[in-house]
Every structure is written in C-alpha cells, then in structure tokens.
Amino acid sequence: MCGVWRHICKDPLMWRTLNMRILHTRHRRLTGHTLDKLCHRAVDRSNGLLEQIFLDQFVTGDLLLHIVNRNHCIRVMRIKRCTISSKALIEAAKKLRLLEELDLSLFDDLTWKSLEAVGRNCSGLRSLKLNKVLPTRSYQQSNKGKNSQAFAIAKYMGELRHLELLGNCLDGTGLVAILDGCPHLESLDLRGCRFRLTESLTRRCSQRIKRVRFPHERIHDEYFRALRYN
Predict the structure, then answer these.
(1) Structure confidence by residue, pLDDT tens digits, 8-52
(2) What separation in angstroms does the CA of 44 have from each of 28, 32, 75, 221?
(3) Cα separations (Å) of 164 from 1, 45, 49, 161?
(4) CA-to-CA distance for 53 and 136, rounded, in angstroms?
(5) Whole-number Å distance between alpha carbons of 160 and 123
C-alpha cells in the first residue's frame, strides 16, 4: 500500500461502514480468529464514528460488546448466522441508542428477553429482520414458545415500519399482537410461516399495511442467496 493510501486509511471517516460479510464469503480459509482480529482493528480505526456494520457467523459476544462499547453512533447493524448469548445481546442493546435497522437473520433462537432489551433501548428502531431457514412441513414447536418473539415485538417495538419474519413459528395470535402493537408498519413479510390466515385477518393486513407478503406466497431461490450474501 502506498504512503498516501496508508495515511488516508488512518482517517476515522474512512471507517463509517464496515462490511466483512463479503470477506468472509470469498476467503473461506480465513479463520474466525483472524476475522475477529481484523474486525477489532477496523472498529478501533473508526474511533467511534462507525455507523453501519455488516458481519457474519464469526461474531462472538465479546466482539459484539467491543464494537458497541467503542461506537455509539451505529444506525444499521446486520449480523447473521451468529451464536451470541442472550446476556451479550442484552448488554449490547443498551449501547445502541441510535439504531434504526437491525438484521439478526439465521440466528440461534433469540430469547424474549433479548428482543425486549432491543425494544426498550433502541427507541428509533424502524426495521427488523428475524428471517430463518424455512422449516420442514413436519416442523412443530410447542404452543408455549412459538409466539414469544411476536409478543416481544408487539410490546416493545411499536415504532417499527418494516418487519421480516420469514420462516418464523408464530401463528395467528402472534400476528394479531403485532398488528395491535405496531400501528405504523408499512411492510411485513411472513413467507414460509406455517399457519393459515383467516379471511378477516388477511383483510386486516391488506388494509393496514402497504406491502404484505403472506405465508402461502412462494419463496424463490433469491431469498436464500440474499440471506447468505446480503
């Protein structure tokens, strides 16, 4: 690297956006430890000016906490296919006061408490994606837990405009809760969810929300590519 570019890259303004998902996809030989070190270095260079961050499955709870402790201006966060403890997510949410867009797709199951912490602390959140790999037709979950995420969203994220829940295990009760608790929704994606909407609930969704993708609608292969690469 020439001296001019080396000098430019030390400017924190060059590090307002950090996208390591492409790096992880194209260079699969890189270990999680190497990616962790690279991410730490990039976050430190941002000097608190990081606004957008896009990471993949190498993220740990410790790395997430390092990111949010060094940067309080994050507005967009997409961290997919990660295994991060509920405790770490709750602590991280306390530092994300300016967060507007959050994507936690392909995560291990998120607890009700984690989403509650996000809702309580990120009052400016407008877009949430909790997409999953689509369940098989035999997929089942106990009635006790299948609407827990929907109830947390409804209770603590009333300012949402965009919500994606592809492959979620909620049912009509969870959807009603979201419609009651999130009156400003402009788009809602329920493709791949395993429940049937009643005629009245279908009508209510269509009348209330500008763009609705219903559970029965077909999902093309582009969805899986988007989950992997975007």
Answers:
(1) 667 777 889 999 875 555 555 667 788 889 899 999 999 899 999
(2) 24, 18, 17, 37
(3) 41, 33, 28, 10
(4) 32
(5) 9
Q: Are strands 101-103 and 17-19 parallel, antiparallel or unpaired?
A: unpaired
Q: What's the CA gap between 92 and 94, in Å, rounded?
A: 5
**Could you say which DSSP state residue 86 is in?**
H
Q: Which long-range contacts (CB under 8 A, 24 or more apart) does 5-10 make?
A: 9/45, 10/45
What is the secondary structure of 16-28 as a DSSP string? SEEE-HHHHHH-T
Q: Please check whether residue 98 is in contact with residue 73, taking contact to mean a CB–CB distance below 8 angstroms.
A: yes
88 CB-near residues (< 8 Å, 6+ apart): 61, 62, 64, 65
Helix (H, G, I), strand (E, B) or coil at 136: coil
The CA angle 40-36-22, to the nearest 5 degrees, is 100
Say what the pLDDT of residue 136 is: 46
Instruction: Name the nearest CA neighbour of 96 among 124, 115, 116.
Output: 124
